[in-house]
Write a structure and sequence with these properties.
Rossmann fold; disordered N terminus; two-stranded antiparallel sheet; 323 residues; alpha/beta; 50% helix; 5-stranded parallel sheet
Amino acid sequence: MKWKTLVAVFCSALLLTGCADTAKTDSGSESSAAETTAPQPVEHALVTLGDSIAFGYGMEDPDNQRYSAIIAKKLGERDDADWHDYNYALSGDDSSDLLWRLEKGRAMRLPSAETIIINIGSNNLLRVYSDYVKEVTDIDTDMDIESITDEQIEAMQTKIEDAFQDEEAVRKELQSRIDTNLQQLETDLDAIYNWIRERNPDGQVYVLNIYNPYRGMESAGLPGETEAFGDYAQEQIDRANAILSAFTDAHSDLIPVDVAEAFAKCDPVPIIGKTELPEDVSLPDGSDAASQFDEAEFVDPHPNEAGQQLIADTIWAEMESHA
């Protein structure tokens, strides 16, 4: 059935980069604090930069469940002081997006932050897939899937069939894009470091590496997959982590946080994982979209609540050793 391929591609692209809730950033705290005339207790700033993982995508209460909020609470308890998590992470961002946001002044509290956490690079890999899917299908992941016309379905279906007919060509194209994006990650990290240090020379900066959400998986519902996708994903993530490691090695003031190792020790990997389509998505014929799919077709790579706690614990261990 044509809808099955269409919705599968649509949902895979959506789940990869967490393209939701990107407007829920903490942008009001700075202005409200500035407008208050009464004396205020000294507030310590934790600034968090990154993508959907840092944002807390998939959490029912990201302002309290994401790892940066947990860290801010721990810092407050340790210091008996008011620590605030200024979380500037946005779902879907890669390293170039983060650099652009910094240059546009989208991290107002960064110059005065005592602690900065950077979690970037996952989308330099994952957005290769979601961007490719959207390019070849013209799918807009913000569209209302129920409003798609039969003519649009036919056109998208034809593009999907044409694009994925030569699987080897798809794999080569995706690998080429990954190679380019990893080179960009290396360039962007240096620019991000320079931007931060020009404005905040003394803050402690923690740099997280990338975990493998696909460990042991034969398939993750992505285009151009190899037979053992978990192994292939590990190879690409290792390349990204080598860039992140070289970055922290080059700057002695940066503190690496080995999230990859922490997740590698977990069985199962603490991610949201296999997921079903939203229950409220229906097809034009009136049938329930979720009933047409095996939930194993869709793998959400974002950390679940236990995963967010694990990231917080891993960062906290580094913070305690550098206190």
